[in-house]
Design a protein that fits this description.
152 residues; 2 domains; four-stranded antiparallel beta sheet
């Protein structure tokens, strides 16, 4: 019984010793990493941008569908079918400076009273969205194309 107790103590001591060494290694490594940075050095992170596409339409006829195409953060043209006579917002991101945003709205049917309005907004580093491109008119039409390249 005494020998089992001594083996248990010796085993506990070995595992404690290993854990202590591992703990000290972690503390030492973190100390080197923290002390390696000077206080006057700041890390400059890349700016993050988000794009908001706004689509709005009105018609005096029975609302049908619109095809909305917009650039995604992976620079793929995404197509969504939405109802006419409605308001929609689509937000994508994050994207980088120089990103080319594109918004194309098309009416697949024949509606000579359809009025289309569209906007592209941009936000930098979680700031408020600002209008960057707008295309609105009370003249009936079947399509809109709107483009904006992030340059701020």
């Amino acid at each position: 019984m005494k020998s089992r107790f001594l083996i248990l103590i010796a085993t506990s001591f070995k595992s404690y010793n290993r854990m202590f060494r591992l703990f000290m290694l972690i503390v030492f490594t973190n100390g080197i990493m923290i002390s390696g940075c000077k206080k006057d050095e700041t890390i400059q992170l890349a700016d993050e941008y988000y794009i908001k596409y706004i689509v709005n339409s009105t018609t005096s006829h029975t609302p049908q569908k619109l095809n909305v195409n917009f650039s995604t953060e992976k620079n793929i043209l995404w197509t969504v079918e939405v109802n006419q006579d409605s308001y929609y917002e689509f937000v994508i991101g994050p994207v980088i400076k120089g990103f080319n945003s594109k918004l194309i709205i098309a009416n697949p049917g024949q509606d000579n009273t359809l009025k289309l309005y569209s906007e592209i907004h941009a936000s930098k580093n979680s700031g408020p969205f600002a209008i960057k491109a707008i295309n609105g008119s009370d003249t009936p039409r079947d399509s809109i194309e709107l483009f904006y390249t992030i340059d701020f």
